[in-house]
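Sequence decides. Consider this:

===
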Amino acid sequence: MSEKSPNRRRSLLKGAAVAAGAMSAPMVSMAQTTSLRFQSTWPSKDIFHEYAQDFAKKVNDMAGSRLKIEVLPAGAVVPAFQLLDAVGKGTLDGGHGVLAYWYGKNSALALWGSGPAFGMDANMILAWHNYGGGKALVEEIYKSLNLDVVSYVYGPMPTQPLGWFKKPVAKVEDMKGLKFRTVGLAVDVFTDMGTAVNPLPGGEIVPALDRGLIDAAEFNNASSDRVLGFPDVAKNCMLQSFHQSGEQFEILFNKGKLQALPQELRSIIDYAVQAASADMSWKAIERNSQDYIELKKAGIKFYKTPDAILRAQLASWDKVIAKKSAENPLFKKVLDSQRAFAERAGQWQNDYSVDFKMAYNHYFGRQQQPKKS
C-alpha cells in the first residue's frame, strides 16, 4: 500500500495539470462547417467581383473548416439590384455591392458615395462612417426599411471618371440632352444638368452604348471599364468628377444568419472586413494604373473634365441636397453628420497634405497628363 502511494500521487498531480491546461485554453467552437451563400452585384470578370472573392477568402482562410463563404456573380440567384431584398429575406446569406444601388429605397443611402461630400475623399468618408456616426445611421436607415440585414461598409474607391463619351465634352452645354448612364444621387445631379439619365446595372451599360440606347456612361475605374468593354464602343474618357468621388463598397449579411454564428467567427468577419478594405485599396492602385496604360495603348483618348462642368456639378448638387433634405429627415440627418465631420477633418487634410502632383511633375514632367478638351 505504501509502495503504491507515491505513484498514485504522481498520477493525480499529472491529471490535475492536464485538466488545468484544458481549462485555461481558449474556448473555440468545434461545430461542423457553416456554409454561407453570397452573391455580388458584379459580373464574374469584373475586378469588383474579385474584391468580393478576396473578402470571402480572408474569412475562409482564418475560419479554417468552421466557416465557408461562397461568392456567386450577379444574376446567379437574383438580379443585381434585388440583392438587398434577397439578403434581407434570407434567399441569400449575404452579398457584395454598393450603398448607392439602394437609393430607390431611401435616398440617404446614396450619400455614402454620391456627390462631393463637403470635400471629403473616399477614405475620409469611410473614416466618418466608422468613427463619425455613419455606421449607426446606416443601421437606422435599414431598420426603418424593415430590412433584416447587417451592413459592413468598406473599400474606399478611387475618384471615378465623368465617363465614356462618343465625343468629348468641352462645356456645360455639351451635357444637355445626352442620354447618360449613372446611379444613385448622381441621377439627380445629371438630370439637373440637363442629361437624360438611365440608371442601368453594370452588365447592361456597354450593350446599351453599342446599340445607341445611351450616348455616354460612367461606371467606375480603368480596370472595370476595360473588362466591361467600354473601349470597344467609345473612344473618349473624361477624367475627374464630383458625381461619385467618394464611393464605398458594402458587404451585407442576413442578420439572423450572422447572429447565429459563434462570437469568434463574427470577430473573424469583423477583422476580415478591415483587412479586405486595405487590400482592396492597394490592389486598386496596382490594377487601375496598369489598365490606364493599356487603355492609352489601345488608342483611348483621355481628357480632364473642364472646371466649368465640375462647378456645374457642385451647383446642381446643392439643389439636390436641399430638395432631398426637405423631403427626407434621414437624408438631412446623414448630411448634417457628414458636414460636421468634413469641416473638421477636411481642414486637417487640406492643411497637412502636401501637393503630390508637384513632386510627380518634378520627376516625370507633364507629358503624361490628360488632355484638356
Summary: Residues 263-297 form the longest helix (35 residues). The chain is about 50% helix and 15% strand. The chain has a mean pLDDT of 91.
